[in-house]
Amino acid sequence: MPSSSNQIDALAATAALMERWNRECYQGSATPIDILKSLCEIVEQQTEAYFKTDPDPFDDRHPGRADPNCTLGHVLKMILKNDDFIRSISHTYLSRDQSDLNVITCRVLLNLMPGLEASAVFKDETSSVNKFFRWAEGRNDQLKSYSIGILSYIMECQENASVYKEQNHKLVPILMRQLHSIIDERKKSSSKTNRPFSQFASSSENAGAVVMDTGDIQTNTHGSALPDHVLADSTSKGAGGEFSNSSWQEMEPLYIQSYQIYPVTPEVQQRLILSYLTPMGEYQELLPEVFQNRAMDIVFHYLDYQKNCDVRLGFAAVRYLASLLCHKKFGIEFINNGGLGKFLSVPRPSLAATGLSLSLYYLAFFEDTMERVCMQSTELLTELLNIILWLLECSHQSGRMHAVMFLSNALAFKAVLTIFDEMDGLRKLYNVLSTSQLLNCEAGTEFTDDQMYVFRQGIRHVAFALKKYYESHACIMADTIRQSVVAHHDRDSPSAELSPYKIMKSSVAEDLALLLECMQKKYWKPAVVFRNLNGVELFLKAITLIADMPAYNGKAESVRWLLDTLAVCSVYPQIQLELCKTVDLPDHFPDRLSSPAISIILAMADTDILCDAEVQKSALNIIINLVCAPSDKPPGSSVHRRGRSNSATQSPFLQSLWDAFRQNNGIMVLLKLLGIQAPLTGADAIRALACQALVGLSRSDGMCQIMSKLPLFNNGQLQVLMKEPVLQDKRYEQLKFCKYASQLIEQVCGRPQNLATDTSLEHIRKAEVVAQTKIIYKEKELLQLIHDHLQQKGLDKAAAALQKEANLPVKSCLVVAPPTTSQFFESPVSQHGLQLSSPGAMKPIGTPGTPGSSAGTSLSKSTPISQSSLRFHIKSSPFTSQIYDSPRVSGSAKHLRAKQDIRSLSCNISAKKTTLSAVTDASESMNLDKIITSYFRKQHALCKNPVVTCPPFSLYEPHVCPEPARKNVAPANLTARVLKHQAHQNYGGYDGVAMNRKYKYSRFKPIKTYKDVEKGSLYTCCTFSACEQWLMLGTDSGDLKLYNVQAGEEAETYNCHNSAITHAEPSQDGLLLLTSSAWGIPQSALWSMDNFFDQKTGFEVQYMEFSKSVQDRIVGTSESKAYIYDVATGDTIMTLYDENKANNYIRNQATFNCTDDLILSDGVLWDVMSGKAVHKFDKFNPSVSGLFHPLGLEVIINSEIWDLRTFKLLHTVPALNQCQIKFSHDSSVLYGAVIPFDDEEEDGINRRNLYGSSFRTFDARNYNCLATIDAKRSISDLCTDKFDILLAVVESHKDTDTLVEDSQCRLYEIGAIKDAEGMTQEEDDDEGEHDDDDDDEDDEVEDDMGGSDGEIIDIVDEVDADDDETDDAENGNSSTDDDEEFENIFINASDLSDSD
């Protein structure tokens, strides 16, 4: 770095010269030669000083950007900001016919070109550029050389090169011939003595010098030392001639040399010619000139440092060689002529050695040239890789990156990969990533945009090289396993090994699948080295850091390549265990210093952080390797009765993988990805991978039990996804998804799925019951049916013989029962593939009616039929006429079989059961008994509740399984139920309590409406006081308003917070009150309401509530943490938080259970006494953290109901999704409403959810929905009094036109029927104020519901009472619920007859 005094002097001298030029030359008429000459001396001096700092030779940026502290950058900026001066030297002075002025002007321009934008300066200066071409062919050596140097900068722009295409075609061969002439002259005049680079003379045999490991310092055979305090300790091999025992002052001129352009020496001429030929070498049109003028010989001459002693000239030649190697033909010729051996003579370290990196990268870019490189001798390949490994540790970033890009292409060849491993190349490649400043900087470190670009590109290239390295090793390992399998089965057949000279091409997915199955007991060195280098933590650090970078276009690629490397390594068990541990995060994330490794992988699989399909697929591949790892269960171990392995017999290793995945909420991510719709092109593949991961996870009994209760299986959602792909072009991915989905259903339900792809788990269980039923039928009815059929066909003798031998009655006295529905005589298609081939008989599919086969005959319409016979012909019934004359049934049997086969193939359920040969064999072995059995089994499958044990089936009567029934069932009519209750039955009989509860909580009568007319405040929350005399309403301004419930008047207003009150809760004795607000200090507070309303304690938490049993404690919530406070003192008793178990719910609200010994916070169950986490519930939603059921045996988290005793998922209630839940005082009913938590989410949630402007009531025993009440406004909060008589609902409305928002609190009377005259006047005013635009639509809805304007909507399902009784019976309801009180039910006598 230059001293400050020298920099000031140079800047002062430059400023003085520019001022003098402006005064004497621009405004005057003096000659500028002296000024320009002085200016050149200053610039050339600073340029020399700049290059002595050894900048990156491939860095073509402005020196001021490459090194902001260099004097050269400041000098160039000072000169270039003078537009008049630039215009003069680029046009005015060049147009004058003065040789001295032209020379000095070109010299100035050449010195200023590193800071000039040549494409812009000479864009319109055609005359000046043409003069440069003319001077380049002239005889003036100085003018010629400077012109060639200027043209080299101009021609770097492809647009300029195309404009001056003809001039370039003419000049290139001239300059090549000139180089040959200079080389020939130097050969004649050169002396072999006193050569500056004689100490580097070495042959290719002894070019290597081994670096010996001597502890902390590595010393080579030449005696120089290389500190290794950053890189990993390893025994590494150095390159030949790398170091010298001379000091840097002595070696600097040899390695960097002088960058002079004055005076113009032969070296300067050659360097400037090569700099011009470099951009010209990339064009295919000039390639013939390259071969014709022997450009390769020119390059070979400069690479031979026994002939060329100028290292900068060697660097220029290497750059020219790199541009020529862009052509595959030249690269092949270069290798065939022994060009690789010339690389070995380049001294290291030197400028030319760094320049070799680009040439090596272009050599590896083409597969053909790389194959020829691999065919070289092992010694040559070793020395070549020695250069590459030296470049990985050189000081120039460009040299390191070019070496990394070389390895990205070369490591796909086995010959290179083998030598690379022998030289410990992986460690050195890994060190390039581990020593990146971006990963090792402290928090708050700022980098320039250029530095950030360089660092990010470095990580990107290393990630791709490591990906190629591990994929190549995976290919080799998979090929070895395949060869061993082939050799084991067929020892005589020769096995084809991978060629070391050909690129390894294979399917990475297939290789990883094979390795995952076979790698449990094998040693894989690349994965072991990766683990020893702590690669998992480093990669996850890089992934986290890059994914968090904004405005980085290469972010997705970098993350994907890092994940792909982890995916390959994760087939190894030790890496799988590493992925289950906690890793440290970069310093850029001060809020979280560490994180579970699997949670970072899951974050990449999700779409919240980085929405890229390829990244998601790479992350899912890692997840699959973890959860689908093979089980090492010993032979003969027990098998679960449902067909899956019992988790108790699984290895602890596999169980630990599942537990780690479950603890980090992996199942929520997988379930979310099953329904993904974007990105469109990758959605099908993502769904297939997510389903494959669920298949592996379902081997765990705990996870399988949870899956069996999810709507994905119970409601048939998975089967709906199996029907059509997201994108029709992705049929192959859809087939894979169907394959894994079928396996998943088989794992969850315990039996294979058949062709019924649109069924749920309940239908599959029902089919299992039907399959286990033993079919028994009356054989005499079958014989009677055959007898009648023979008579219809005119075979009277055969019919008489059958009647006599079977002892049948003379005339059948059986009467066919007319079918009530089409299902009883619908053509059954059994699992054997049977259907009715005609109105009177059945036959196997694909077997047309043949002579002599009764199954292939049809009824003759002209034959008289007895009324007592079984009638299947088309005139017997309109139902049978529609069925048997349907084109679908009467069509080709082959068409039906093909349709079944296509559906079977698309689902990929079981190929063995759907092949044509199996169907043919079944048809050949078919008999009449199987046909009848199949027919009856199909009838049995149509029963609503099939049972295993059935009475004998009848051919003359439809089969129906008996429905479960109970004695003393309560009447469905309310009047009859009340009378029966008064007579002798409790609550009117069995299920009377549930019916009464449904009647009461499906009727709500609005009686009062509260509005803040004076201040216009918006209500945000509501609660009743302990004495039930006051209704407390929180506002958006932080006020708490008290209204008299009976009078409806505002009594008091208290200012509690500076922001909106989000929650208010009085104590049971009414002396204390808790409030919480959106923000501010304090955010929550405890208030005294004894004699005066004043604040007792303030808390910095988001949400607070009292304990349930004895209200001596308060639980507060701040994000994922829960705090327990003492009510009397306000002190913190305990903090409940575990970073490794945190679910990070957005709306976490900690709460006590009914006995105050447990707390549920952030989806984690805590023991209050010990302060330890008891259990972490699986996370299935990002927002709602859950609460306890007041009865104390269940936990409700969003729509999932968990058993508090076994921690198993009991069932799911989709209607509770994203709802705020409030229980009635007797805990028999719960209220649910979708309540937005801030203004930004409100409109979005209400649009997405069908019930965003309504609240629903549910039976707290079985969670059946009782009613949905439409409030026609967004609901902010609701509460009920302790007598379950009144319900307060805070409603808000925002006008979409004026954006004006208002709110109100409406008070409902529970169980009361509204007045016959209609709504109250308040409701009429409200409807007229806000819902005028929806009057027509509301009228239509009310007409459909059979009510008048504003009537409370009762949406109780229109089902029979028996159905409700059956459902309640299954949920264990009893008719002797002594704790139920049938009171507060208001009955309107005029509505009793039609109340139900």
Structural features, described:
By secondary structure, this protein is α+β, with helices and mostly antiparallel strands. The chain contains 54 helices and 35 strands. The strands form 10 sheets. The chain has a 4-stranded antiparallel sheet with strand order 8-35-34-33, with helices on one face. Strands 9-10-11-12 form a 4-stranded antiparallel sheet, with no helix packed on it. A 4-stranded antiparallel sheet has the order 13-14-15-16, with no helix packed on it. A hairpin with a 5-residue loop joins strand 31 (1254-1259) and strand 32 (1265-1270).
How would you summarize what this structure contains?
44% of the residues lie in helices and 13% in strands.
Q: Compute the number of helices.
A: 54
Strand content: 5-15%
- By helix and strand content, what is the structural category? alpha+beta
The whole-angstrom Rg is 43 Å
Mean pLDDT: 78
Low-confidence stretches: 196-246, 633-648, 812-923, 1239-1249, 1327-1396
The total strand number stands at 35
Distance linking N and C termini = 93 Å
Form type: globular
Q: Give the neighbour order of strands across the main sheet.
A: 8-35-34-33
Percent in helix: 40-55%
Main beta sheet: strand number and arrangement? 4 strands, antiparallel
Give the helix/strand layout:
Elements: H1 4-26, H2 33-52, H3 63-66, H4 71-80, H5 83-95, H6 99-112, H7 118-121, H8 126-136, H9 141-154, H10 158-163, H11 165-189, E1 211-214, E2 217-220, E3 225-227, H12 248-255, H13 266-280, H14 287-292, H15 295-303, H16 311-324, H17 328-336, H18 339-343, H19 351-365, H20 367-374, H21 378-392, H22 397-410, H23 414-422, H24 425-434, H25 437-440, H26 449-489, H27 508-518, H28 525-532, H29 535-547, H30 555-569, H31 573-578, E4 582-584, E5 594-596, H32 597-605, H33 613-627, H34 652-663, H35 666-674, H36 683-697, H37 701-707, H38 711-714, H39 717-721, H40 731-749, H41 761-772, H42 779-792, H43 796-805, E6 834-838, E7 841-844, H44 878-884, H45 887-890, H46 893-907, H47 916-924, H48 928-941, H49 974-983, H50 992-1000, E8 1004-1010, E9 1019-1024, E10 1030-1035, E11 1039-1044, E12 1050-1055, E13 1061-1066, E14 1072-1077, E15 1084-1088, E16 1094-1099, E17 1103-1106, E18 1113-1118, E19 1121-1126, E20 1132-1136, E21 1151-1152, E22 1158-1161, E23 1164-1167, E24 1173-1176, E25 1187-1188, E26 1194-1197, E27 1200-1203, E28 1209-1212, E29 1220-1223, E30 1229-1233, ...
Antiparallel strand pairs: 1-2, 2-3, 4-5, 6-7, 8-35, 9-10, 10-11, 11-12, 13-14, 14-15, 15-16, 17-18, 18-19, 19-20, 21-22, 22-23, 23-24, 25-26, 26-27, 27-28, 29-30, 30-31, 31-32, 33-34, 34-35
